Amino acid sequence: MKTKVLTIFALASLVMMSCKKTETATPAEPGSATITGTLYAPLDLGNDTTAAGVFISGYDNEFAPSGTKLTAIIDTYDLQKNPDNSFNYELKKFTAVVGDNGSFTFTGLPTYSEQINVEIRFSDFDASQAQFDPSNNPAQTKIYTLSDKNATIYDGASLIKEYTYTAN
């Protein structure tokens, strides 16, 4: 009888020890970062002269036109603590529009305390470019381009950037 009681007690103990309360982990909420800046373009070559009268292209660039769009792209792979290399993570895209004085702002870019990369892509635009000597060379329509740029963000970051378009 004692053996039966001990056996039942041992089995009950095993059952009790093998039961664990399952707790689900709540994922951390991402923080955010902000990128603000100014875009420039050489729209008027007539003001690209120094006080000594020397012409230097890009010496005094103008603000890029308001309404020009740019996009910040974050690979959500970078937002994972333990990313799965076999999973195809989405790219999150954020759009900013150039305002007065060439200004732009990306707010609420998701990130954690670890640094991650953001790719910034710029829309091309066409505009008239005043020439250095307008009496001999009238304004010309140019296509303005700017290659993609990278920035590093982290939770709470507030970056200030300046970029300049090239006339083609």
Automatic annotation (TrEMBL):
Domain of life per record: Bacteria
Keyword terms of this UniProt record: Signal
Keyword Signal included in the entry's annotation: yes
Record's signal peptide: 1-21
Name listed for the protein in its UniProt record: Type 1 periplasmic binding fold superfamily protein
Source species of the chain: Putridiphycobacter roseus
Highest classification ranks of the organism: Bacteria, Pseudomonadati, Bacteroidota, Flavobacteriia, Flavobacteriales
